[in-house]
Design goal:
The chain is mostly helical. It has a domain of 40 residues. Helix content is 41%, strand content 6%. The chain has a two-stranded antiparallel sheet. Helix 1 runs antiparallel to helix 2. The chain is elongated, with a radius of gyration of 21 Å.
């Protein structure tokens, strides 16, 4: 008697050959340093410095930022 495997709320599990492969990605040392810097500054609660760092990172990487609705 074959039993259907369940994953999550009522979803059948995929057979091993159909499972999605994990996507690996690497961050550049500059990106890692920026993230660590933002985290450190964020712990100090200095919003202006965090916004400036994010803005500079976005400019360097061609990312367009939207204004937050706060």
């Amino acid at each position: 008697m074959e039993q259907e495997l369940k994953v999550g709320p009522g979803r059948p599990a995929l057979p091993p050959e159909q499972k999605r492969k994990q996507k690996n990605f690497r961050l550049s040392p500059d990106t890692i340093a920026l993230i660590e810097g933002i985290a450190a500054v964020n712990q100090m609660n200095d919003t202006e410095i965090v916004e400036k760092a994010v803005s500079e990172f976005a400019k360097r990487n061609g990312v367009e930022l939207a204004e937050a609705d706060v």
